[in-house]
Predict the structure.
Amino acid sequence: MTEEGDRFEFPYDKLLIATGSAAVKPDFAGIDLPEVTVLKSLEDGRKIKTLLKSNRIKKAVIIGMGYIALEMCESLAGLNIAVDMVKPNPIFLPWLEPSMARTVKEELEAKGVGVYAGQTVERIEKTADGLQVNCRGLTLAADMVIVGIGVTPCSQIAENAGLELSTSKSIAVDRKLRTSDENIYAAGDCADAYHVVTGEKTWIPLALRANRAGWAVADNVCGKEAQLDGVAGTAVFRVFDFEVARTGLNVVEAQKFGFDPVQNMIQSRSKAHAHPGNSTIWVNMIGDKKSGRLLGTQMAGKDGVAHRINAVAVALHNQMTVRQFSQTDLSYAPPFGPTWDPTLIAANQLIKKL
Ligand SMILES: Cc1cc2nc3c(=O)[nH]c(=O)nc-3n(C[C@H](O)[C@H](O)[C@H](O)COP(=O)(O)OP(=O)(O)OC[C@H]3O[C@@H](n4cnc5c(N)ncnc54)[C@H](O)[C@@H]3O)c2cc1C
């Protein structure tokens, strides 16, 4: 259908559905106020910029504490806007090892951010001064509210067409990105993927997979066969001075998929001990007691996290054991890390528990 509401039809030999994902929009009163933005698109970003240009935004409330919400928090704080964050789950960053999550939360609080995990927003009201965000037992004043509580796959077209849906209602695709109709492909945030650790279907809406899947569909449609291995769920984000990253499974996810997970957390340095500018880096590595396999890793620190997680991701793609990973020949020079890279120290320590 066009923007004017006119219907049109295109015949096809092969069809690609690449409808992405949509921001989850809560349905409490006040969600459609002009100063409230459910963030997803560039258009939403432009709306926020326009509000900021008015120079009357001194306080913002962000609903949600995922990576998009946290990145928004950093950006707004950088503009000297006071930020409060609120979400229903009392556990801050639940996928992260608890002590690591606490460290990140403390970083936010040290920067003056109000972190209210365990609070459900019931309504937003307009007041003489701006906005009031009402939770049960908590009221927060704001000039602007941003909602970033997650996304959901845009799979309605596929569902209407009778195509098979998968985890989180994403569109089920095989390794060639074919849906349950062999002439229809799906790629990107709307579609599922195989997880390289579990071998099972998963839905992890991130940019690399979306892009890679698009290229693979183009190859397949043009007769050059392309198959994708899957995803490890590798992700990184920055909040203030902290880089936080993950790849693979955490303990809870590993248990769900029948592994016998053991985790071990180590603290090391981002550069050689005597090198200026070195800072603490935390690595939590998870292995399977039954097989010795490396299952996942989470990392946080002020320096050197983003590139380190990638080495672990490569190991996960190759189904390596923790011992095999501990034997890898990773680089060393004082400006870049200690002699034993923090990920190797994590593996050496985890082996003792497996
Ligand atoms: C604020 C933000 C920050 C992000 N940061 C990162 C990051 O740092 N790292 C990372 O890996 N990922 C990040 N992501 C995720 C990343 O942007 C997505 O994984 C990626 O854009 C998905 O690409 P896509 O083409 O599948 O979907 P999209 O980019 O969402 O594109 C889908 C397109 O389909 C259109 N569409 C939907 N339904 C229909 C329909 N019925 N008819 C016609 N058109 C339709 C939409 O309008 C849209 O243009 C971020 C996402 C957001 C929102």
